[in-house]
Design a protein that fits this description.
The protein is mainly alpha-helical. It contains 16 helices and two strands. A two-stranded antiparallel sheet has the order 1-2. A hairpin with a 2-residue loop joins strand 1 and strand 2. The relative contact order is 0.21.
Length: 299
């Protein structure tokens, strides 16, 4: 198996876990405010990565001052701002809406990596992006009712994530995935706890216990394991391609919402599967777009 194929499998596995994120996050809001929920989730993720570093013996990565510098930047852009805005947005919008709106990260990532950094982006990948966005718009056409505060917060978050991904990609060249995530979670967790205290949210264990299972699921599986998949993925394939592959998550979110929340998908939502599948094929398979008379040619 090639390194590119491994990267694609890592990202698709991450997308599967990520699709559960907005559902579990909303379920965890029962007795905790959004920032406090995110803070405790991040702290559980910190403990998870500390255990992984202990098992793999990668603590030596922390001897490099540059790793700490990258860790701070990654925590700032992703751990604090991206997830902070995302969690606040989930308080005022639905998981399905959030999973669709976060697709705008495709455009912000394209802007950073292609326009500013001149990273190669083929015609096939561009078409794949359009198919995936079309799938999102099909869902959007039935359920979208206007820009609420939550929608705007999540849209704002998508402009910050590409910078964090850029520094993550750089840091992965000198440190392990678990080291990067340990530092990101460590810095973010304490910063978010301080922010929750400043906002006068309750951060005690009384409100923690009722939502502990959801916090552990998000902290260990989604903030933990899935992010290891993400970093290993973008270490092997371009971030733009990784973001586009991850764009299948809204469909999976709708599927899990049906299974977990008993929200039956509509005809519009089911029809969105077609462009999503076409997008994944264009982004992962060895196809070359040639001309309209011979649209796809297998290499």
């Amino acid at each position: 198996m090639t390194e590119e194929r491994k990267g694609e499998l890592f990202i698709l596995s991450e997308a599967l876990l990520w699709s559960l994120f907005p559902i579990i996050a909303v379920l965890s809001f029962g007795s905790l405010a959004p920032v406090t929920t995110l803070a405790w989730t991040t702290i559980f993720a910190t403990l998870f990565f500390a255990c992984v570093m202990f098992v793999k013996g990668t603590w030596r990565d922390l001897k490099n001052p540059l790793v700490w510098r990258y860790g701070l930047l990654i925590a700032f852009f992703i751990g604090i701002w991206f997830y902070g805005l995302y969690y606040l947005g989930l308080k005022y919008t639905t998981p399905g809406n959030a999973s669709i709106l976060v697709l705008f990260e495709v455009f912000t990532t394209y802007l950073l990596f292609n326009v500013l950094r001149k990273e190669a982006f083929s015609l096939e990948h561009t078409l794949g992006a359009l198919f995936m966005i079309a799938g999102a718009l099909i869902v959007l056409g039935e359920n979208f009712t206007g820009f609420a505060v939550g929608d705007l917060l999540i849209l704002g978050a998508t402009f910050l994530a590409p910078f964090g991904n850029m520094f993550t990609q750089k840091c992965r060249e000198i440190a392990s995935s678990e080291t990067i995530m340990f530092l990101r979670s460590l810095f973010s967790g304490f910063a978010l706890l301080a922010l929750a205290f400043f906002l006068k949210e309750s951060i005690g264990v009384d409100g923690l216990l009722p939502t502990l299972p959801y916090l552990l699921i998000n902290g260990v599986l989604i903030f933990g394991l899935s992010k290891l998949f993400w970093i290993e993925g973008i270490h092997r394939i371009p971030v733009t391609k990784a973001i586009l592959l991850q764009s299948m998550s809204p469909f999976l979110t709708l599927l899990f919402a049906w299974l977990i929340l008993l929200q039956v998908p509509t005809v519009w939502q089911i029809s969105a599967l077609i462009p999503f599948i076409l997008g994944v094929i264009l982004l992962t398979a060895n196809f070359r777009v040639t001309r309209f008379t011979n649209l796809f040619e297998i290499k």
